[in-house]
């Protein structure tokens, strides 16, 4: 096949080029139209969708944690406040490998190795975009140590946050409580949204029971962030439409604690295991509330390491244990004025008629001797003397005469076995025994029966009867008020932290104890005054030189057994088998302003150990004496 | 009255004077105006997209000045010399591409640059002009439309540099150079049935291309089909640029107010993805204005090509104009999600070096070809 000779034809080439150019033009227009359609679809049809996406891209909501309410005493002295502190926080979302980061921080000594596992659990339980505090308070040196290595820790950062500070340290710690890092257990009961940005929460005491008031309401602000999630500044035009809501600070609490009285209580108990509760009988204000040994609540706000926490928990003296609120002890002889009043009210005895004490008591038809604390006996005793000298045989007799039903009912009126109604949580009820109780509580059928001997020893506050120091102080305040007591309260007023507006809380009366004849109160009070008076009052030594009159009652409670969890140590066991020392009192006896209960574990003697403590508190409160 | 007459005549005099100057310099007034308008708008957008980076702006302005100088310089060169040089430029270009394979400077995983000590030079940029010139040179003295043997030669001429560049790897540039070569062939008058046959071969070519693609290139194609499949990886670019364009709406968020760009959500915002910044800050209207300017350049270029008097001039001019369109369309298409992400900058606007100089040099050649016509006879 011969191909035709082809000659270059410029004219036709020109026409061909024009045709091709036109074809190209048409094709380009088609492509441009496709592009424009795509742009219209993006910018017009789906504009709202993309506008929202871009808004979501650039705006992140940042919580503004509220300032926690302050805790003040009635004169405005600050007991708990907020201070800025450096906090080490980890944001899981921004941390590529949380385990490795924690290990590296431990290597830098910024996190304890023991804490890594609990921290991992905590981090897992919080939302991934939230900063989780892994150290609450860093020292300047630690801040510097972290700062030089910061670039190695993506997602870990130092933030300045408000932390709780207790300027008076251990002062009133068992009443005020403390705050600590929000734990997994806390997360179960709180609304996480309300706690966004907050790292501390009340754990016990006022801090915990008034958590709702103290916490406040968090605010938020929308912050402009870049693609890395870092807030950016200085883009004024982009920031114009950002919303924000300020946080509302928590409510300030005014607590009833009287600083001199509280300090006297803590000083007097120093080195002892014990508790003091002092109440204003006119309104239930708790003037002193101490349990020793105590601890520094600032350590919790700072963040305890696992080892530190374990050391506190394992301490044989149990500093974390709130003896005033949760320690239950046999009240011992401090119960005698109440038993006496029961006997008067039920007319079970004649107060003027003397009974002879020969050092022991026997039930009819039994040879078992219930011994008096004074083996040789007290001789002839009437009611007032029996109280003043704490004659056991007299009250064995009284208890037996009254019987358990009447005794139990009457003790119940004074709040035994019931909550006092104090405004902090965790109160133990103690134990008010009765026939019904024993029926239910004792497992062996042979022992379920209420024996007459069970009644007898309740007359001197032993046996099954158990009460907390708080309940005993409440009892003292009821006697001081001639039957009218008030629910103990630590918080007496709420103050709006922004307006300063004060809302006083009204006292809450307890159900009044009514007796047939009001003069009966005076009889037992006279007995209690007798306790503090020579020649034979058991605590007369502790009243010596007091410019006011005191009504008191000593008590000594037998310790049956050592707690099973406590470590065996011969010397300590010996010490811990000693009797507990108790004392209740109020003063001035004729117009009481303060009622107090003192417990000293293994303090041996109410008059020797507990009563002097009470005297110091009374002096501090009534005389303003500083110990 | 005397004064009243003065102004229009002054204006006219100025106009005539500049027209004369443009004529002397072999420049095309309309094209120059449109290109300058794009470049000036581009600088304004770059200022915003770069986060008000003045140093960067200055560098880009200087680059534009250099590109302008290259354009003016090339416009002075007679088409005769351009035609004579074409095979030599092509040969040197291919040689440089081979050299760059062995001694090139790698950057961002691609070996594209030759370090000449004082300047880094991308031989592939040279090929953007050398390939169409070579194709046109080859076809200039031969009868058109080209027969099968000529097509085979042309294919080899195109595939050698395209293959070398795709291997660097620089898919975007390879694509543009292939396009510039193919345009020469198409404009030369390839028969319609050949076009149809080749179009039918596209699926086969696509399969071949897939086999030779690097993993990152395959990933780009896959994410193009479904960007949401990898929102934080390969799909991130497309998703963020679509958010930027879409949220701009019809009127845009205003200059320097595009949150996607200003807050750095949009990656490559001053380079390959600057089109999205325009869409975000100036809206649909801004994009349409920009498209209109680009299309004017293309249309003017094609018109000038038609006016050229010999095959070499027509083919080179036509190819330069159409390649400019491909530049625009591939970039706009990828940023808006119409096409896969291939690294093609937005011509004259994206921040970047040699491509602007090459582009303007191409227009310089175009102006030279157009202005050196013999006005009388042929």
Sheet/helix structural class of chain A: alpha+beta
Poorly predicted runs of 5 or more residues of chain B: none
* Sequence of secondary-structure elements of chain B: HHHHEEEHHHHHHHHHH
Side by side, the strands of the main sheet of chain B go: 1-2-3
- Cα separation of the termini of chain B: 48 Å
Q: From the alpha-carbon coordinates, what is the Rg of chain B to the nearest angstrom?
A: 22 Å
Count of distinct strands of chain B: 3
Distance between the termini of chain A: 131 Å
Residue stretches of chain A low in confidence (pLDDT < 50, at least 5 long) are: 561-568
Could you give a short account of the major beta sheet of chain A? 7 strands, mixed
Q: What Rg of chain A do the Cα atoms give? A: 37 Å
Gross morphology of chain A is elongated
Task: Profile the largest sheet of chain B.
Answer: 3 strands, antiparallel
Q: What's the helical proportion of residues of chain B?
A: over 70%
How many beta-strand runs of chain A? Answer: 21
Strand content of chain A: 15-25%
Major interchain interface with per-chain residue totals: A-B, 46 and 56 residues
Mean pLDDT of chain B: 85
How would you characterize the overall build of this protein?
- The complex is a heterodimer of chains A (627) and B (378).
- Chain A contains 24 helices and 21 strands.
- Chain A is an alpha+beta fold.
- In chain A, a hairpin with a 6-residue loop joins strand 17 and strand 18.
- Chain A is elongated, with a radius of gyration of 37 Å.
- The N and C termini of chain A lie far apart (131 Å).
- The model of chain A is unreliable at 561-568 (pLDDT under 50).
- With 378 residues, chain B is mainly α.
- Chain B has one domain.
- Chain B is 72% helix and 3% strand.
- Chain B is built from 14 helices and 3 strands.
- Chain B has helices at 2-24, 29-49, 54-76, 79-103, 123-140, 148-166, 171-187, 192-212, 215-225, 235-248, 259-262, 274-307, 311-336, 354-371; strands spanning 105-107, 110-115, 120-121.
- In chain B, a hairpin with a 2-residue loop joins strand 1 (105-107) and strand 2 (110-115).
- Chain B is globular.
- The termini of chain B are far apart.
- At the A-B interface, helix 1 and helix 2 of A face helix 7, helix 10, helix 11, helix 12 and helix 13 of B.
């Amino acid at each position: 096949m011969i191909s035709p000779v082809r000659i270059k034809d410029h004219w036709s080439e020109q026409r061909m080029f024009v045709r091709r150019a036109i074809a190209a033009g048409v094709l380009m227009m088609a492509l441009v139209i496709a592009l424009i359609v795509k742009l219209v679809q993006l910018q017009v049809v789906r504009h709202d969708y993309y506008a929202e996406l871009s808004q979501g891209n650039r705006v992140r909501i940042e919580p503004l944690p509220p300032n926690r309410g302050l805790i003040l005493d009635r004169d405005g002295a600050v007991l708990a406040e907020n201070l800025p502190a450096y906090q080490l926080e980890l944001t899981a979302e921004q941390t590529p490998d949380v385990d490795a980061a924690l290990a590296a921080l431990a290597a830098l000594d910024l996190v304890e190795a023991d804490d890594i596992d609990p921290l991992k659990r905590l981090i897992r339980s919080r939302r991934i975009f939230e900063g989780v505090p892994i150290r609450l308070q860093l020292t300047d040196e630690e801040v510097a140590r972290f700062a030089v290595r910061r670039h190695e820790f993506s997602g870990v950062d130092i933030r300045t946050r408000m932390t709780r500070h207790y300027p008076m340290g251990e002062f009133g710690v068992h009443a005020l409580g403390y705050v600590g890092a929000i734990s997994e257990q806390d997360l179960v009961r709180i609304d996480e949204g309300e706690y966004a940005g907050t790292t501390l929460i009340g754990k016990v005491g006022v801090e915990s029971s008034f958590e709702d008031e103290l916490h406040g309401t968090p605010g938020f602000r929308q912050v402009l962030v870049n693609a890395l999630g870092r807030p950016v500044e200085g883009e004024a035009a982009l920031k114009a439409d950002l919303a924000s809501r300020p946080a509302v600070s928590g409510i300030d609490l005014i607590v009833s604690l009287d600083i001199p009285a509280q300090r006297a209580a803590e000083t007097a108990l120093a080195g002892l295991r014990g508790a003091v509760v002092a109440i204003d009988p006119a309104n239930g204000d708790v003037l002193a509330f101490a349990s020793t040994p105590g601890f520094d609540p600032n350590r919790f706000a700072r963040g305890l390491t696992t080892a530190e926490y374990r050391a506190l928990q394992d301490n044989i003296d149990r500093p974390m244990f709130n003896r005033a609120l949760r320690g239950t002890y046999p009240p011992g002889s401090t119960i005698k004025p109440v038993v006496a009043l029961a006997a008067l009210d039920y007319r079970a005895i004649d107060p003027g008629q003397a009974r002879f004490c020969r050092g022991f008591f026997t039930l009819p038809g039994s040879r078992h001797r219930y011994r008096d604390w004074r083996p040789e006996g007290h001789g002839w005793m009437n009611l007032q003397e029996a109280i003043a000298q704490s004659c056991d045989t007299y009250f064995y007799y009284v208890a037996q005469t009254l019987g358990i039903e009447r005794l139990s009912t009457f003790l119940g009126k004074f709040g035994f076995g019931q909550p006092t109604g104090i405004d902090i949580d965790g109160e133990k009820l103690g134990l008010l025994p009765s026939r019904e109780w024993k029926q239910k509580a004792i497992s062996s059928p042979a022992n379920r029966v209420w024996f007459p001997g069970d009644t007898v020893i309740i007359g001197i506050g032993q046996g099954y009867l158990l009460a907390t120091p708080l309940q005993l102080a409440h009892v003292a305040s009821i006697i001081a008020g001639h039957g009218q007591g008030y629910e103990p309260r630590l918080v007496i007023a709420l103050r709006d932290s922004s307006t300063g507006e004060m809302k006083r809380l009204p006292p809450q009366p307890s159900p009044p104890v009514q007796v047939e004849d009001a003069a009966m109160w005076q009889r037992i009070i006279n007995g209690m005054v007798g306790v503090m008076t020579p020649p034979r009052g058991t605590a007369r030594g502790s009243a010596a030189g007091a410019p006011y009159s005191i009504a008191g009652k000593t008590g000594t409670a037998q310790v049956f057994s050592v707690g099973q969890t406590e470590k065996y140590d011969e010397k300590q066991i010996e010490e811990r088998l000693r009797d507990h020392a108790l004392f209740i009192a109020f003063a001035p006896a004729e117009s009481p302003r303060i009622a107090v209960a003192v417990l000293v574990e293994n303090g041996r003697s109410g008059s020797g150990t507990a009563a002097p403590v009470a005297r110091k508190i009374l002096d501090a409160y009534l005389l303003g004496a500083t110990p | 009255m005397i004064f009243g007459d003065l102004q229009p005549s002054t204006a006219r005099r100025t106009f005539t004077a500049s027209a004369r100057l443009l004529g002397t310099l072999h420049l095309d007034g309309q094209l120059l105006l449109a290109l300058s308008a794009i470049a000036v708008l581009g600088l304004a957008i770059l200022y915003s997209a770069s986060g008000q980076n003045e140093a960067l702006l200055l560098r880009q302005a200087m680059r534009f000045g250099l590109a302008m100088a290259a354009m003016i310089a090339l416009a002075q060169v007679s088409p005769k010399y351009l035609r004579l040089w074409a095979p030599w430029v092509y040969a040197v270009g291919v040689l440089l591409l081979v050299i760059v394979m062995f001694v090139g400077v790698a950057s961002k995983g691609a070996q594209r640059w030759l370090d000449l000590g004082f300047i880094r030079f991308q031989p592939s940029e040279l090929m953007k002009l050398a390939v169409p010139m070579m194709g046109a040179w080859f076809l200039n003295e031969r009868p058109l439309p080209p027969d099968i043997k000529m097509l085979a030669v042309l294919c080899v001429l195109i595939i050698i540099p395209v293959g070398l560049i795709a291997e660097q790897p620089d898919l975007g540039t390879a694509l543009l150079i292939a396009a510039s070569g193919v345009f020469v062939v198409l404009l030369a008058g390839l028969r319609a049935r050949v076009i149809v046959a080749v179009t039918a071969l596209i699926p086969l070519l696509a399969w071949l291309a897939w086999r030779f693609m690097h993993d990152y290139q395959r990933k780009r194609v896959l994410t193009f089909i479904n960007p949401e499949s990898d929102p934080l990886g390969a799909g991130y670019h497309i998703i963020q640029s679509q958010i930027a364009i879409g949220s701009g709406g019809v009127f845009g968020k205003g200059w320097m107010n595009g949150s996607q760009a200003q807050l750095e959500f949009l990656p490559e915002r001053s380079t390959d993805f600057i089109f999205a910044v325009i869409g975000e800050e100036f809206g649909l209207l801004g994009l349409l204005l920009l498209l209109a300017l680009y299309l004017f350049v293309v249309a003017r270029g094609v018109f000038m090509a038609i006016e050229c008097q010999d095959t070499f001039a027509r083919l080179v001019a036509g190819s330069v104009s159409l390649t400019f369109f491909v530049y625009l369309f591939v970039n706009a298409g990828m940023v808006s999600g119409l096409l896969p992400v291939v690294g093609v900058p937005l011509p004259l606007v994206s921040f970047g070096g040699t491509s602007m100089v090459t582009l303007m040099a191409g227009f310089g050649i175009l102006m030279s070809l157009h202005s050196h016509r013999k006005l009388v006879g042929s």
